[in-house]
Please model this.
Amino acid sequence: MTSDLPLHHEIAGDGTPVVFTHGWLNTGEVWSGVVDELDGAVRSLTWDLRGHGRSGTAAAGEYTRANALDDLGRMVEAAGRPAILVGHSLGGYLSLAHAILNPADVAGLVLVAAGPGFRSDDSREQWNANVREIAAGRGDLPDGQVEITEHVDSLVIDRLGEIAVPAITLVGERDKRFLASADVFDKHLDVRRRSTVPDAGHMLHAKQPGEVATAVRELATIVAGPG
Model:
């Protein structure tokens, strides 16, 4: 059991709780420019996924989606419920899954170059083979850590319509794979704004943090409601 696995996290600012979840092979530090741009306007929690950065390393077989979502739940509890979930790539997928399985935790979503997974078994296996190849080429990852970014079912894409909270999506104009995912979100989520960021690729939040900070501020205003 790894429910007490140490998870490195940092909190800055006050106000609406916002939990930032990074993508595979990154760390919470990738959000530093966004947090700086927010300048304390919200209660920002950044964290390192298990097996990443300064968080604890789990045993092989314990990098499941369920365990990653338990970890995310701990971070929401630390930030305050309900929280806006901001996720990049894998972090966006986990944020969507958490919104489906724990709707009371989530006030809104900011999805940065994120995707909802795959319905096709062949597409899932193609994705999984690709990330396994990347992991094998690295040689410096914890044993079994690649499982955290593998896909085993179509839970998220099948249940997107259950998510009732407002969302803002951002994707770089050069990030072709995730431009298609943004089309799916437009169809199934309550997307209040979709931003295709010029001259940006997959790491747009690191390269253009002001775009993400603006989206967070905008969504915080939306979820706060009148007054």
